[in-house]
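Incident log, structure service

09:12 report received: a user says their structure output differs between two submissions of the same chain.
09:20 pulled the input from the user's history:
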Amino acid sequence: VQLQASGGGLVQPGGSLRLSCAASGSIFSIGAMGWYRQAPGKQRELVAAITSGGSTSIADSVKGRFTISGDSAKNTVYLVMNSLKPEDTAVYYCNKVPDRSVFWGQGTLVTVSS
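09:34 re-ran on a clean worker, output below:
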């Protein structure tokens, strides 16, 4: 299975974006899925996760603003990001939870700036 993250871009503070993570195969066959992000000069962090059963968890830093969902039929996991802040600027990646090195891709850049 290969993972491809997309949907990033430049958005103003307070704006919204939806990221997509498309898998080449059954996305939940490799386990729970997550969205990670890495801001410049910072360590990569897990911001949201979802299991094959639909249970989700969201990091405190984005709780109430970010929502993760999955569509098994489309082999895709989404991250809806609302009320974006400049500190959300980062490269966003999808991977399984816990992560596996083989699934790290290039990610998608989200820039929140006016």
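09:41 both user submissions now match this output. Likely a transient worker issue. Closing.
09:42 reviewer note: The longest strand covers residues 17-23. The chain has a mean pLDDT of 94.
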